[in-house]
Design goal:
The protein is mainly beta. It has no helices and 43 strands. The strands form 12 sheets. Strands 4-3-6-7-13-12 form a 6-stranded antiparallel beta sheet, with no helix packed on it.
Length: 538
C-alpha cells in the first residue's frame, strides 16, 4: 500500500472564448463543491506522531500526512461513507512501521468531524530457538504469522481496528549466536511463530525441520521459546573439534542426551574416537517400529565405523549404519539390535561411539603345540574387526633360549609354523590385519619345545584261519607309543574293515584276508611302519 493516497479533487474550469462577439455575455462560473473538515491529531504514548499517512476512501478520495504536531486535515464530502485509514509505514516514528488503523465504513456528517487517533503501545517479542538439550540454535529462520487485530476507538467514538500485519503478511528474522531474534508487534496482539532449521543449509540431502508455536498474547517485552525436540547439538568430546548434531524424524523427541569422553585405554588399540560416546533416549515411536537417527559430525571427520559397549564388551555395530561424508545414519528398531533397553516399548536407548577406520582388535590366543621343528598355534578372531573385514592372521613364535624364530600367515586357526629349532623353548603370539592395518598382538601362548619325532612300532599278533560262520572278526594291535591303531584290509573281495578304528573285519568271501594295522604318529612320534596279518577264510 502506498503511504500517501492520491487526492482526487473535483474542480470546475470555466470556458474561455477566443473571439469576442459584440453584445454576447460570459457564462456564469459553476459553484464550488461544498466540503467539511475531517481533522484530528495522531499520537502515541510518546506524543504526537508526524509522517502518518491519513486517507479517506469514499467519494472524496483524499489523503494527507500528519505534520510535526501530529495534526491532519482532510476536506471531505458531507454524508460520504468510505474507508478511513491511518498508515504508519511512512511515519518518522520507526517503532510504528507496518502499523495500520482502519475503519471500513466511516460516515462523514454534515459538519466538521474531529477524529483523534492514539496508536496502541508496541511490544518487542524476543524469540529464542533451542534444541532438545536445550542448546541455542543460531542461523534459524523464524517467521511471525499474522499478529491478530486489536480493537480501538477514535475520539469521536468510532470503533477502529489496529493491525501490524495487514494485509496478512508475515515477517521473518534469523537467530543470532544466542539463538535469538526480535519482532515488533502490538501489546495485546496474538502472533504465532514457526521456525525452519536446515541440518546442512543448502544441501537437500539432509533433513529440514519445522516447529510451529501456539499464538501468544503479547506484552512488552515478551519472550517466546521455540523448541526443536527432535534435534540435539553439542560439542565434540573426541579427536575432531566442532559441533555434533543428532536428529530424528518429526513427532519424536530426545531426552537425556549426553556426550562423554571415552578413556583411551577403554577401546581396542588403534581406535580413534571422533566425537566421544553419545547417549540419548528417543521417545515418540510406535512400539517395535523402525526409525533412522542421523548423526552429523564435524566436517572432515569421515566416520566409517560405529561401536558401542554391550555387556562390558565393545561391539562393532556398523552393520546398522550408513556412512556419507561427515554423516552417519543409524537404522534402529525399537527393541532390536542397537536399542540398549532391548524392549519394544516406543523408546530407543542408544549409546554409540563414532570412530574412523581402525585396525582390528587382538585375537584370543589358544593352545600352541610343538612338533618336530614346527608348531601348531590355535586362536579365535578378535571381538572387533575395526569396521573392515579381517584379511588374514599372522603368528610369530620366538625362542627364549636361542632357537630360530618362525612365523606363518593364513586366514583361519590353527596356523602351522615351520623352521623352528628342536629342543628349544618357544612361545607364540597372533595378530590380525584388515584394510586399515595390523592390530595389537594377542596374549603370549603357552611355552612348548619342538622335538625330533620318536619312532614307534606296532605289535599285531597273527590271526588264525576263520570260517564264514565266524564273521565278523574283531582284531586288535598296540603301538609302542600308546597311540591308537587303526585297521584296513587289502582284500576287499574276501573281507572288509569297519567300525570306529576299522577293527571289525567282516568276511564276505572265501580266500585269503589281509588286515593292515596303521599308526600315523603325531607331533611327538613319527608314523609307525604298517604291519599286516593274513588268514584263510574257509
Amino acid at each position: 500500500m502506498s503511504s500517501v493516497r492520491p487526492h482526487l479533487a473535483v474542480a470546475v474550469v470555466g470556458a474561455l472564448a477566443f473571439s469576442l462577439v459584440l453584445g454576447a455575455s460570459l457564462a456564469a462560473p459553476a459553484q464550488a463543491t461544498v466540503t467539511v473538515d475531517l481533522s484530528g491529531v495522531v499520537s502515541d504514548a510518546s506524543g504526537p506522531v508526524s509522517g502518518t499517512s491519513v486517507w479517506f476512501g469514499g467519494g472524496s478520495q483524499v489523503s494527507t500526512v500528519t505534520g510535526a504536531d501530529g495534526s491532519y486535515v482532510l476536506h471531505v464530502l458531507p454524508g460520504d461513507t468510505g474507508l478511513l485509514e491511518f498508515d504508519a509505514s511512512s511515519s518518522t516514528a520507526a517503532p510504528l512501521s507496518r502499523l495500520t488503523a482502519r475503519q471500513n465504513s466511516y460516515t462523514i456528517g454534515s459538519g466538521p468531524v474531529v477524529a483523534n487517533l492514539v496508536w496502541p503501545a508496541h511490544a518487542q517479542v524476543r524469540t529464542t530457538v533451542v534444541d532438545a538439550i536445550p542448546t541455542p540454535l543460531p542461523d534459524v529462520v523464524v517467521h511471525r504469522l499474522n499478529a491478530g487485530e486489536i480493537q480501538g476507538t477514535l475520539s469521536d467514538g468510532t470503533a477502529i481496528t489496529f493491525s501490524s500485519d495487514y494485509p496478512y503478511s508475515e515477517d521473518s528474522c534469523t537467530t543470532d549466536a544466542a539463538g535469538q531474534c526480535t519482532f515488533s508487534t502490538l501489546v495485546g496482539a496474538t502472533p504465532g511463530f514457526y521456525a525452519t532449521y536446515q541440518l546442512v543449509p543448502g544441501d537437500p540431502s539432509y533433513p529440514n525441520f519445522y516447529v510451529y508455536s501456539y499464538p501468544l498474547i503479547t506484552a512488552d517485552p515478551t519472550d517466546a521459546t521455540i523448541s526443536f525436540l527432535n534435534v540435539a547439538s553439542f560439542e565434540s568430546a573426541g579427536s575432531v573439534v566442532g559441533p555434533v548434531v543428532v536428529s530424528a524424524p518429526d513427532g519424536t523427541s530426545f531426552s537425556g542426551v549426553k556426550n562423554e569422553v571415552v578413556a583411551g585405554n577403554a577401546l581396542p588399540s588403534g581406535a580413534t574416537v571422533l566425537t566421544g560416546e553419545l547417549s540419548y533416549q528417543l521417545d515418540g515411536l510406535a512400539p517395535g517400529s523402525a526409525i533412522d537417527v542421523t548423526l552429523l559430525l564435524p566436517s572432515g571427520s569421515s566416520p566409517t565405523s560405529v561401536i558401542k559397549l554391550e555387556g562390558g564388551i565393545y561391539t562393532d555395530v556398523s552393520s546398522i549404519a550408513t556412512f556419507a561424508g561427515a554423516a552417519i545414519t543409524l537404522h534402529l528398531t525399537d527393541g532390536g539390535f542397537g536399542d540398549s533397553d532391548g524392549l519394544a516399548n516406543g523408546i530407543i536407548v542408544d549409546p554409540v561411539i563414532p570412530v574412523i577406520p581402525v585396525a582390528p582388535g587382538a585375537p584370543t590366543i589358544g593352545q600352541a603345540t610343538g612338533a618336530s621343528a614346527s608348531a601348531s598355534v590355535a586362536f579365535t578372531a578378535p571381538a572387533i574387526d575395526g569396521g573392515s573385514p579381517v584379511l588374514d592372521y599372522t603368528t610369530t613364535c620366538t625362542s627364549s633360549n636361542g632357537g630360530t624364530s618362525g612365523s606363518s600367515t593364513g586366514g583361519a586357526s590353527p596356523l602351522l609354523v615351520a623352521g623352528l629349532t628342536n629342543g628349544r623353548s618357544y612361545t607364540c603370539i597372533v595378530v590380525a590385519r584388515n584394510g586399515v592395518g595390523t592390530g595389537p598382538p594377542s596374549a603370549t601362548s603357552n611355552s612348548f619345545t619342538p622335538a625330533a619325532a620318536l619312532n614307534q612300532t606296532i605289535k599285531f599278533n597273527s590271526l588264525g584261519n576263520k570260517s564264514m560262520t565266524q564273521s565278523p572278526v574283531t582284531v586288535s594291535a598296540t603301538a609302542s607309543s600308546g597311540l591308537l591303531v587303526t585297521f584296513t584290509t587289502s582284500t576287499s573281495s574276501v573281507c572288509t574293515a569297519s567300525g570306529a578304528t576299522g577293527a571289525t573285519i567282516t568276511l564276505v568271501g572265501l580266500g585269503t584276508c589281509t588286515v593292515i594295522a596303521h599308526q600315523p604318529g603325531n607331533s611327538t612320534y613319527n608314523p609307525a611302519p604298517t604291519v599286516s596279518q593274513s588268514f584263510r577264510v574257509r
